[in-house]
User: Which sequence fits this backbone?
DNA sequence: ATAATTAAGGACAAAAATATCCTTTATTTT
DNA sequence: AAAATAAAGGATATTTTTGTCCTTAATTAT
């Protein structure tokens, strides 16, 4: 459904959401290893998500790394797709018409539009926090000990 | 959702289904023009769909071209996706895990699996003929006159 | 038989997506 | 101030997808 880049973006953001805090930032090495993605490529993606007060926060230098503010945690997953310029995927026509619309529908449109709406709703209503929480329930992660 | 190649495959097949018959075959020139796709690239795709008694039938030489047998018309759209090796898209994990499964679900899985099932059902239950018929209802096509 | 037509198929080109490497900048620790 | 650490950013490489062009093979019409 999504590009590799977007998949990495989603996995990385969820991982950061689960394991980081402002006091406990994560390095790119750990993140890439944890989500099983190429390190440098993932770094570029995190740059994108970090740019101009984006979804992810970052600090350079020793003790630095990536983390999610509690405000960012509450943002919908669709914001990640938007930054990755893939939120358009959800609105696209199955047959590749310029625009998926009622005005100029393709023969799949009538049957597809309902599914499309569900997809949009899913990504709009689900927050990063919810995914992180769900992931914790599925496979608990050893959170770093407070010092 | 799908690659350009698959979009062209779907559009071309539907167009052929609407306008062709064994007595009235269509040339690649007309098809590419009608579905607004690059001619040579589309030719390659039709080759794929034609290979070893595939979905589309073809005949070379004067009066030749592409057409759909009435048997092929009744095949599900998913068969096109299968030939294009994109039927896997429907089963893929949203976050890009190797396998989307109950055994090792990602945090989107619970919410996504229902939508995924609908997508699979849609492509499995919809036939090429149905799409062609629906398309005719939306935008009637001037069918070639019998001679 | 020869010429004309049309798809099949191979070779190649361009563009986009994915991935790596190296240098620079910001920050902290010594 | 100097050294160390970690992200930011630029340049480049690789792979995949998309697209073009030209030759070959099959079929029909002359
Ligand atoms: S127009 Fe094709 S899916 Fe809506
Ligand atoms: S495991 Fe990710 S969608 Fe099913």
Assistant:
């Amino acid at each position: 459904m999504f590009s590799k880049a977007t998949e990495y973006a989603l996995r990385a953001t969820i991982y950061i959401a689960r394991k980081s805090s402002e006091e406990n930032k994560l390095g790119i090495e750990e993140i890439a290893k944890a989500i099983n993605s190429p390190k440098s490529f993932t770094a570029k993606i995190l740059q994108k998500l970090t740019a101009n007060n984006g979804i992810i926060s970052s600090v350079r230098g020793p003790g630095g790394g990536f983390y999610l503010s509690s405000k960012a945690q509450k943002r919908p997953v669709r914001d990640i797709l938007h930054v990755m310029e893939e939120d358009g995927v959800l609105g696209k026509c199955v047959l590749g018409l310029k625009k998926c619309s009622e005005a100029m529908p393709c023969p799949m449109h009538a049957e597809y539009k309902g599914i499309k709406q569900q997809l949009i709703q899913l990504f709009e209503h689900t927050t990063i926090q919810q995914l992180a929480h769900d992931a914790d329930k599925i496979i608990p992660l050893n959170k770093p000990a407070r010092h």
Remarks:
- The helical segments of chain A are 4-19, 28-35, 39-50, 70-73, 78-83, 88-91, 109-125, 128-138.
